[in-house]
Design a protein that fits this description.
Layout: H1 17-24, H2 38-43, H3 52-65, E1 75-77, E2 85-86, E3 92-101, H4 113-129, E4 134-144, H5 150-167, E5 170-178, E6 183-193, E7 209-213, H6 218-235, H7 247-254, H8 261-268, E8 275-278, H9 283-294, E9 297-301, H10 309-318, H11 322-328, E10 335-339, H12 344-347, E11 353-360, E12 366-369, E13 375-377
Parallel strand pairs: 4-5, 9-12
Antiparallel strand pairs: 1-2, 3-6, 4-6, 7-10, 7-11, 8-10, 9-11, 12-13
Helix pairs in contact: 3-5, 4-5, 6-7
Bound molecules: adenosine-5'-diphosphate and magnesium ion (MG).
Length: 388
């Protein structure tokens, strides 16, 4: 069985050989290592394989949901009725959803199903934290073709469950259906926040500081490394990838974490962001969302953008610009927010936070100040822009 590497969320732990073994030497996902892709693995006669039709829809739902425990008093009724029941209390409710489709959003040749389950929860929790709220429940809907066995769905749900345990959220429902081809997974996260605590994209004001958590660009480079290894494998199935130099990047791509700690950190520091967004599509496009919704401009300083040393060394190796990767690479799931300049003393020097620029008047536009002190206009490029 594949074991997810045990790291504390966002502690930046480095795994080298462990992750290497997990992804590339696993018996379930031999991947590039021995004999290829998931499809061939699923057809492997030696693997235990229970057909989904043996269980039927209700058997499957019962099987995959029975190990989940309810953790929140606000969950009155979870799985098992026509609808879940939540206690709305006096707080505001946050609802967010994401749909992930095989071949569009993920590639099972290097994304183990357990990781896919984990990541599909994380990307939704990240959106709740980006509203400065606490996530409490999720629903999970899946469509699967008969290419997938019960064991494969168990792997997916093991990842979902691990995310539920790690982030303390309740699985309260979903839907299960078949697809003609591939797998599709949709997660909805539900959270809560006091009315006065909710942070929108629209509240940034001139002179506010622009702050980002963690570091950027790792997840995009992790994807590049995995794509490269896939191509190498296709040419030479016996090649054994050496991924030790990329462990952090691969972890960022295959096991991202959501910054649950940042809303709490800011509360402890008595700082309420004026605006906030999570970085799913790259710094550039996220800051543009804040600027357009807040009707302001911004100045970002290239030298202030936080980069992990592995991002820098891999950019050199791939001959791509690390600033470009941070601006346009996606899936880092860090938080980008603005705070009043009056809060500078409270956040300065915090190891989790980097002040990367400030908000300007709208007419000044959105600009990047380069290391050479040149001002360039920021372009809206999602991470797809880098792919061509
Ligand atoms: P209905 O036919 O009334 O929509 P279902 O038979 O689809 O109900 O679902 C039965 C229960 O199982 C519901 O509580 C639903 O939310 C839950 N459920 C269905 N599919 C999933 C899934 N993939 N993951 C988690 N819960 C699920
Ligand atoms: Mg249903």
């Amino acid at each position: 069985m594949i074991q997810l590497i045990k790291t504390e969320p966002n502690k930046g732990n480095r795994i080298s050989t462990e992750i290497h073994q997990m992804i590339f030497k696993s018996k379930i996902y031999p991947l590039f290592y021995r004999c290829g892709y998931l499809c061939s693995m699923l057809e492997d006669k030696n693997q235990s394989r229970t057909s989904l039709s043996e269980l039927g829809e209700f058997g499957l739902i019962n099987h995959i949901t029975k190990h989940f425990k309810i953790k929140h008093a606000s969950t009155i009724k979870g799985v098992g009725d026509d609808a879940a029941v939540l206690d709305a209390s006096k707080l505001q409710t946050l609802v967010t959803t994401d749909l992930l489709i095989e071949g569009v959003h993920f590639d099972l040749s290097y994304m183990p199903l357990k990781h896919l389950g984990y990541k599909s929860v994380i990307v939704n929790l990240s959106d709740v934290y980006a509203m400065n709220g606490e996530a409490e429940q999720i629903t999970v809907s899946i469509a699967v073709s008969n290419r997938f066995s019960l064991e494969a769905i168990e792997e997916l749900y093991a990842g979902i469950q691990l995310a539920c345990e790690t982030y303390k959220v309740d699985l309260i429902g979903g839907d299960t259906t078949s697809s003609t081809k591939g797998i599709l997974i949709s997660v909805t996260a539900i959270g809560k926040a006091k009315k006065e605590d909710v942070v929108y994209r629209s509240g940034a004001k001139e002179t506010d500081l622009i702050v980002v958590s963690g570091d950027l660009g790792g997840a995009y480079l992790g994807l590049q490394v995995l794509e490269r290894e896939k191509q190498v494998f296709q040419v030479n199935p016996n090649s054994q990838p050496d991924l030790d130099n990329y462990s952090y990047l691969i972890e960022r791509q295959l096991k991202p974490e959501a910054r649950k700690d940042i809303p709490k950190l800011l509360k402890d520091l008595e700082v309420k962001p004026t605006s906030m967004i999570d970085i799913s599509d790259g710094l550039s496009s996220e800051i543009m969302h804040i600027c357009s919704q807040s009707k302001v401009g911004c100045k970002i300083y290239e030298e202030k953008i936080p980069l992990d040393p592995q991002v820098i060394s891999t950019c050199e190796e791939f001959d791509i610009d690390s600033t470009m990767v941070a601006l346009s690479g996606g899936e880092d799931y860090e938080l980008l927010f603005t705070v009043s300049i009056d809060d500078f003393e409270k956040i300065k020097g915090n190891p989790h936070l980097s002040i990367i620029g400030h908000i300007t008047e709208q007419a000044a536009g959105m600009n990047l100040v380069t290391r050479a002190n040149q001002e360039l206009e920021l372009k809206a490029q999602g991470w797809n822009a880098l792919k061509d």
